[in-house]
Amino acid sequence: METKQLKDKWPELRDKLLETYPQLSANDLVYEIGQEAELLKRLQEKLGKNRKEIDYVLSLMG
Fold first, then answer.
1. Residues 12/34, Cβ–Cβ less than 8 Å
2. Is residue 57 within 8 Å of residue 3, measured between CB atoms?
3. Closest Cα partner for 6 from 46, 43, 49?
């Protein structure tokens, strides 16, 4: 998912991720402009998925 799309859709995506993946906390999903790579890395670590899989999950939700 592109940075602009992530930024624009983040509140909705964050809520869906929290509902779908109970192992995620609000702290795991803190989004800061310019820190997208760190956010995606946290998602990879917490969900045990690679970057391509994370992009796919986000595209399905968004």
1. no
2. no
3. 43
pTM assigned to the model: 0.86
Q: What pLDDT sits at residue 4?
A: 80
Domain boundaries, the chain: 3-61
Please give the biggest Cα pair distance in the chain.
Answer: 26
Angle at alpha carbon of residue 5, lines to 3 and 44, rounded to 5°: 60
Residue with tokens 């992009």: 55
Per-residue pLDDT tens digits for 17-37: 999 999 999 999 999 989 999
d(CA 26, CA 40): 14
